[in-house]
Amino acid sequence: MSLLQIDNLSQRFSNAGQQHTAFSELSFTLDAGEFLCIIGPSGCGKTTLLRSIAGFLTPSSGQVLLNGQPVRSPGQHCAMIFQTFDQLFPWRTVLGNVSYPLLVQKKAANKRQAKEQAERYLDMVGLRNFSSYYPHQLSGGMKQRVAIARALALQPSLILMDEPFASLDADTRTMLQRELKRLWSESGLTVLFVTHSIIEAIALSTKVLALGAGPPSLRLFEDNPVQGPRGQLKTPSSPGYSEYWSKLNAVVRP
Ligand SMILES: Nc1ncnc2c1ncn2[C@@H]1O[C@H](COP(=O)(O)OP(=O)(O)OP(=O)(O)O)[C@@H](O)[C@H]1O
Ligand SMILES: [Mg+2]
Q1: Which atom of ligand 1 is nearest to the CA of 45?
Q2: Which of 118, 200, 216, 230 could serve as 25's disulfide partner, Cβ 3.0–4.6 Å?
Q3: Percent of the chain clearing pLDDT 70 (strictly above)
Q4: What global pTM score does this model have?
């Protein structure tokens, strides 16, 4: 059985009496351990799709199945990481931001265990020495690393990332892409990652989903054919890179 099954899913909104379709008739399945990058032009429904999978939205039609069970409300199955830097609790330290949800979600038996688990994940993202800092004392990239550590520590079935590195400078972005790919390969996580960057999608993904104006919204869903060592970013020197870049570019910007 697939970890995630999207079954003829459509999401419509009504605004001031007008119907608007974010995406429609979307079907695909994803196995555990995949790294799916979702691309497509602005407004094609990428964020809405992540929110539907997280259970924040009730589908207009179709369904989202996780391990064969319909997702009906937000729960501990998903952790979501956003583009904005203000997703941390400003009144908690770095350590508190990671350890507190572990206690709330009962992923740690007591405060000491939550602290130990949080420290392990802060170590992974290179922030152990910043445990006592507050979010306003961190750079944008460091805040995103705390958000990643918090999501990883909760060990959800799925990690949903909505353009998490879009507001970062190029060097920090590449560094975090490398870290994320390494963490993914070491942990066996399943990641859904929205990006506007074809370069980022090729670098990170095992599979690519492209959306466009519908119906139907699905433009492409396939394995990333570019070869490279697991856990490392694919680069322009990876075999098959330029052909695949051209293909995705034509799909996203026809
Ligand atoms: N809560 C809402 N109410 C009404 N319309 C909405 C709502 N959320 C999203 N939409 C509409 O759904 C469409 C898809 O929005 P969405 O945010 O999913 O796009 P996106 O692909 O993430 O775009 P971007 O790349 O700019 O982030 C848009 O036309 C948007 O106006
Ligand atoms: Mg979006």
Answers
A1: 18
A2: 216
A3: 100
A4: 0.94
**Shortest-distance ligand to the CA of residue 42:** 1
Q: Closest by alpha carbon to 37, among 207, 157, 203, 222? A: 207
- pLDDT-derived band of residue 134, with 50, 70 and 90 as boundaries? very high
Residue count (the chain): 254
Q: Does residue 169 surpass a pLDDT of 90?
A: no
CB 244 within 8 A of CB 225: yes
First to last CA, the chain: 35
The answer regarding whether domain 4-77+157-252 maps to CATH 3.40.50.300 reads: yes
Q: What average pLDDT does the structure give for the chain?
A: 93
Q: Whose CA is nearest to atom 18 of ligand 1?
A: 45
Does pLDDT of 240 surpass 80? yes
CA atoms within 13 A on the CB side of 1: 8
Pocket test for ligand 1, best of 9, 20, 252 (most atoms within 8 A of CB): 20
What are the boundaries of each domain within the chain? 4-77+157-252, 88-155
Write out the two tokens for 239.
Answer: 């075999």
Ligand 1 pocket check for 19: Cβ under 6 Å: no
Per-residue model confidence as pLDDT tens digits over 45-59: 999 999 999 999 999
- Report CA(253)–ligand 2 centroid distance (Å): 17
Residue 157 to residue 71: CA distance in whole angstroms: 12
d(CA 57, CA 252): 26
Strand pairing category for 35-39 and 18-30: unpaired
pLDDT exceeds cutoff 80 at 85? no
